[in-house]
Amino acid sequence: MADRLYIFDTTLRDGEQVPGCQLNTVEKIEVAKRLEELGVDIIEAGFPISSPGDFKSVVEISKAVTWPTICALSRAIEKDIDIAADALKYAKKGRIHTGIGTSPYHIKYKLKSNEDEIIERATRAVAHAKKYVEDVEFYAEDSGRTDNEYLAKVIEAVIAAGATVVNIPDTTGYCLPQEYGEKIRFLKENVKNIDKAIISTHCHNDLGMATANTMSGILNGARQAEVTLNGIGERAGNTSLEEVTMILKSHKEIGIDTNINSKNIYQMSRLVSTLMNMPVQPNKAIVGRNAFAHSSGIHQDGVLKHRENYEIIDPVDVGINESSIVLTARSGRAALKHRLNVLGYELDKTKLDGVYEKFLRLADRKKDIKDEDVTQLVGSIKKEDRRLKLEYLQVVTGKGLESMASVRISIAGESFESSSTGNGPVDAAIKAIKLIIKRKVILEEFLIQAITRGSDDVGKVHMQVLHEKQIYYGFGANTDIITASAEAFIDALNKIPARK
Ligand code: KIV
Ligand code: ZN
User: Fold this and answer.
1) Please, what are the averages of pLDDT over each run of 10 residues along the chain (500 residues)?
2) Considering every ligand atom, which ligand is closest to the CA of 234?
3) 282 lies in a domain?
4) Residue with the nearest Cα to atom 7 of ligand 1?
5) How far is the CA of 75 from the centre of ligand 2 (A)?
6) Which of the ligands is closest to the CA of residue 200?
7) pTM confidence score
8) Domain C-terminal end among 275, 304, 334
9) Which residue's CA is minimally distant from atom 5 of ligand 1?
10) Residue 451's domain is classified under what CATH number?
């Protein structure tokens, strides 16, 4: 049977320490409930002595959450521990996380103490926490830069005092993966009572090694990993929950499982990013916008032939259901055909070639092509059979200038030109078209809509035109909104029956 790794999520404590990422209590409760659904084992809900807000959040999260253990942080100070215990009074399963610095830097410069006194303070804190809860976690802050022999002495003493979990933080993100793994192994092999506690990793990402160090710790015997969603946290952040979880899921040969329901990962990542105002870098592993996006023709073709050619994780496993094929100017016909099929279009080779040519022209102007753009491209092919076609449109407009439009339209194969001024460029273009068609039409409704948000976006125009008491609808889409408007008008005109 596979071993179990406990996932200790500290998004609401270490993650929330990031300036600008603070959440209010209601938001924290929402995150906590979703962490419960995600399947985390322990939620570090806050540092109660640090502020009344943190205290309240630990209280409310304890009430709101059912099965995960709720953990409250404290320093190795009795008052801190008392307040943490008070904040946990409603927790169905409560844990106090107490600790002290053990590296020479912390002992000498931060705590102005000595090694023996640190062991005494550590054990006293654990024993005090033990009066309130059975589950006490001890952190040896800056373990990454703590001498292994001394660290082993501290850990043995705190386990003897009642610690059920021993946290070995690489607080400054300094360790190399091999070094961190060896530290965990050293503790496993040299702490006499180590079997009475679970070893926990807590790695920071200052040198980009947080996940590698956590994995090295796990491979060497740690069975709890302290992580955050999207890897948020102090400075360069903490180990990310999604990376550790998906590494273990992808490498079954390691033989360690978590309780995480990976299908909730993507949604959870978005929630944390939105609430904390912390964008996820596009190339972030697992949850970044580009994590499953294939844009080069060769990769797209490879993925379409067999997903695993270029993907080691099925995006569906982390809750991403969208197509991973991003249409750009570098996409080939295979990718376009695939997207068309997904959208329900089956085009023969000649039609596909036609759409592909138009697609390349659009892709040169627009960074990535959305489904709406593709639908529009297919529609524009059909338009070639229409009686009225816009062949040419030029507008002159600007501040302090009267707008002027020149158009050329072909009607049943014959070209007609005209020009007009107007109250703005769209009005000028519509008036110029009306001069050609010589039919009494009234523009009743005119709606412009951007498909996404960029300035290079395709604008959609819907129009409603009245002719002889009958309404006709027209639609146009173009990166140029004036052309889209003229096309929408002509689309509506095409629906008016030709004169006998
Ligand atoms: O990084 C660290 O050392 C910590 C401890 C408080 C656990 O966050
Ligand atoms: Zn930390």
Assistant:
1) 94 92 93 98 98 97 97 98 98 98 97 97 98 98 98 98 98 98 98 98 98 98 98 96 98 97 95 90 91 82 84 90 78 88 79 91 82 76 72 92 94 92 93 91 81 65 82 80 91 78
2) 2
3) no
4) 139
5) 13
6) 1
7) 0.74
8) 275
9) 141
10) 3.30.160.270
Q: Give the separation between CA 457 and CA 367, rounded to whole angstroms.
A: 9
Burial level of 214, CB count in 10 A (0-12/13-18/19+)?
buried
Radius of gyration of the chain from its Cα atoms, rounded to whole angstroms: 32
Q: Specify whether 414 is located in the same domain as 373.
A: no
Residue 499, domain member (yes or no): no
141 lines ligand 1 (CB under 6 A): yes
**CA of 169, nearest ligand number:** 1
Pair 149, 207 in one domain: yes
Same structural domain, 91 and 168:
yes
169 ligand 1 Cβ < 6 A? yes
Among 275, 307, 336, give the residue marking a domain's end.
275
Tell me the HSE value of 74 on the side-chain side, using a 13 A CA sphere: 31
SS3 15: helix
Alpha carbons 167 and 137: distance in angstroms, whole number:
7
Which ranges in 144-264 belong to alpha helices (H)? 148-160, 177-190, 210-219, 241-250
Same domain (yes/no): 361, 452: no
State whether 84 and 225 are in the same domain: yes
Residue 139 Cβ inside 6 Å of ligand 1? The answer reads yes
Specify the ligand 1 atom closest to the Cα of 14. Answer: 8
What spatial distance separates the first Cα and last Cα of the chain, rounded to whole Å? 82
Assess whether 162 and 54 both reside in one domain.
yes
Decide whether any atom of ligand 1 lies within 6 Å of the 138 Cβ: no
Task: Write the DSSP assignment of 428-454 as a string of letters.
Answer: HHHHHHHHHH----EEEEEEEEESSSS
**Cα separation, 221 vs 256, whole angstroms:** 11
Supply the range of the domain harboring residue 11. Answer: 3-275
Please check whether residue 286 lies inside any domain of the structure.
Answer: no
